[in-house]
Amino acid sequence: MQAVATAELMPGCCVFCQSGQGPFVDTFRDDDDPRIVAGPDQVQFGNICHWYICARCVSSMMQLVAPALGQKVVQVAELNEVYGKKGALEEALDLANAKVEELSGALRVVNALTAPEPAAPESPAPDSSARVAHPAGKGRRRVNEQ
Ligand SMILES: [Zn+2]
């Protein structure tokens, strides 16, 4: 098989849909069966009919069998749309990453400016629990007690 721009041999059209608009797949098959030529005006017994398949019929056939082959037929317009979205998403991601970097720098400055002063060594807190634990004063040691 070979892709050709025009169907030069009789009947000069797609064997399935009778379109004369190329491109076609030339199957290199000839057939003298007039039933492959549609329409009463085109049936000419004794003529050799060359089998061309137009691109639209090939595309339709491919869409029918692609799933069985684990494939999917994708239109160029669909691919362009996906690539366009991918480009826009990459651009948005670059902008977002730049903003994150900018905000991270600002956050480092804020953290440096608002960081607490290094704490002075803590003096022991007054021990009030001793007074609570001994409300009657029992066990409390008096300063002048010996
Ligand atoms: Zn066709």
> What is the count of β-strands?
3
Q: Largest sheet, if any?
A: 3 strands, antiparallel
Beta-strand residue fraction: 5-15%
Could you state the order of secondary-structure elements as H and E? EEEHHH
Which residues sit in consecutive blocks of at least 5 with pLDDT less than 50?
none
- Helical residue percent? 25-40%
Cα(first) to Cα(last) distance is 119 Å
Shape: rod-shaped
Structural class: alpha+beta
> What topology, given as strand order, has the largest sheet?
1-2-3
Note the total helix count.
3
Total of domains: 2
In this entry the ligands are: zinc ion
In short:
This protein has 146 residues and is an alpha+beta fold. Helix content is 38%, strand content 12%. A three-stranded antiparallel sheet has the order 1-2-3.
How would you describe this protein?
The chain is of the alpha+beta class. The protein has 2 domains: 2-69, no CATH class; 74-113. Helices cover 38% and strands 12% of the residues. It contains 3 helices and 3 strands, in the order βββααα. It has a 3-stranded antiparallel beta sheet. The longest helix is centred in the middle third of the chain and has 39 residues, at 76-114. The chain starts with a strand and ends in a 13-residue tail after the last helix. The model has no long low-confidence stretch (mean pLDDT 82). The structure holds zinc ion. Zinc ion is lined by residues 14, 16-17, 19, 54, 56-57. Zinc ion (ZN) is lined by residues 14, 16-17, 19, 54, 56-57.
